Amino acid sequence: MLKDIFYFLIFPGLLFAFVGGGFLSWFDRKITARLQFRVGPPLLQPLYDFIKLLGKETIMPMDAAKTLFFLAPVFAVAGAVLSCVLILLPAFGMTAGFRADIIVVFYLLMIPSLSYILGAIASGNPLASLGASREMKLIIGYELSLLLVVAAVILKAGNSISIYEIIYVQQQQGAFIGSISGVLLFITAMMCVQAKLAFVPFDIADAETEIAGGIFLECSGIILAMVKLAKYIMLLALPAFVVVILLGGFRLEGIHILWSVLKLLGVVLLITLVRNTNPRLTVGQSMRFFFIWMNLIAIVAIVLTYFGL
Predict the structure, then answer these.
(1) Could you give the CA distance from residue 185 to residue 65 in angstroms, rounded to a whole number?
(2) Is the pTM value of this prediction over 0.90?
(3) Measuring CA to CA, which residue among 78, 97, 75 is closest to residue 86?
(4) What are the pLDDT digits (tens) for 235-263?
(5) Residue 256, CA distances (Å) to 49, 253, 262 in order
(6) Residue whose C-alpha is closest to residue 17's, from 295, 270, 231, 278
(7) Which residues of 264-273 are buried (b: 16+ CB within 10 A; e: fewer)?
(8) 3-state DSSP assignment of residue 291
């Protein structure tokens, strides 16, 4: 029991995920600044932003379903932390306690987005509800693509549904990205991660220039702090998930530690480059992108995997 609490609250759970996600958020913002010929924020800026929000007044909308509006970001943080724990435990060489953890992680990674939708609807703001509608449509698009990626990874791992065993197979036979199907799966997974993080070109649910922040329009104070915390953690969990299922996972020994960190930073760097070199897509464009192109690429990868390519 105490070990489970330690895993959830300390390592690799809430505290570790907050520090790691905060660092990756700084890395993302620093690279963005350099691309725009700016200096960028200091290393501790994500921490400053979070603490500042905790001290701000939390304004509750008049027409909001107050309990649900307040609890929605808490659910988002809980889902993000749980997914991070189940991803990082096997990544660091510890079993998660059950065999079908990759299926559980797939559903847990959906909780933050669903929580944002519930919070936006509960706020009673029309623009927030519009953002929630956009987020629901986006989820329908990218979740199927990500499910096909997970199915292909399970097939490549000899029908194993354990993240620990998937990592072990890659360490014995080579990372899945070293094959043609692995490259196609990596492309699809990266686009799904981009959408899950609500980064450009898939930031349609909170487009500030169109709907003034959309699903987060009414968030303030501690509620916005919880949203930011969930986003920090997801910025660690999702790239780590890609590294675990396609890039061979992490190895915490010798020079492999540096290589593991570089793989994680490389995935975040690609995400940052995509968000800074593309315009925002419309809802229709995003749906077509995932339903047609990403699903097609994932299906081709599954066929190639079946033939051992």
Answers:
(1) 41
(2) yes
(3) 97
(4) 999 999 999 999 988 888 878 889 989 99
(5) 33, 6, 10
(6) 231
(7) beebbebbbe
(8) helix
DSSP 296: H
Nearest Cα neighbor of 301 from 193, 184, 155, 192 is: 184
Those residues whose C-beta lies under 8 Å from the C-beta of residue 154, and which sit 6 or more positions away, are 102, 160, 161, 166
- Give the separation between CA 50 and CA 199, rounded to whole angstroms: 19
How far is it, in rounded angstroms, from Cα 86 to Cα 81?
Answer: 9
Q: Where are the domains of the chain?
A: 2-306
Is the model's pLDDT at 211 over the cut of 90? no
What CA–CA distance (Å, rounded) separates 253 from 25? Answer: 26
Residue in the block written with tokens 């990759």? 102
Which two tokens mark 182?
């692995």
Q: Tell me how far apart the alpha carbons of residues 188 and 145 are, in angstroms, rounded to a whole number.
A: 7
Q: Single out the residue of 198, 233, 229, 250 nearest to residue 83, CA to CA.
A: 233
Between vectors from CA 162 to CA 135 and to CA 8, what angle results, nearest 5°? 65
Tokens representing 292 are: 């047609």
Residue 146 contacts residue 140 (beta carbons within 8 Å) = no
Token pair of 117 as six digits: 């939708």
Q: How many residues are given for the chain?
A: 309
- DSSP letter assigned to residue 57: -
